[in-house]
Structure prediction request, 106 residues.
Amino acid sequence: FTLVSDKSFIYESGNIKVGRLIFTGNASVKDVVSYYKATLPEKGWEPVAITIYGDSAQLTYVTPTQFLQIEVKKSYGTTYLIISLGPRGSVPTGPSQDAQLTNSDQ
Prediction:
């Protein structure tokens, strides 16, 4: 994947880290989702919601202090990977904090 630097940002101040990174590449949505589902829990991230629909997916993970949202979409042969990170208090979890899994491929 290649970083789209003019559409990405990272801000750090003390213990606060906020960022939105946008990448483009050629991997399949399924491969990107599989990678993050395998590696993030090993690094202490807990899944909150994983939604896969056609050629796009959205994954939300949390730690005690941070949230991580990953969007993956395939359009016209290019895969877009959008990674957003922020303080845990701003995670959009919906009505409950329970992990949810939706996969239209099953």
Remarks:
- The radius of gyration is 14 Å.
- Helices lie at 29-39.
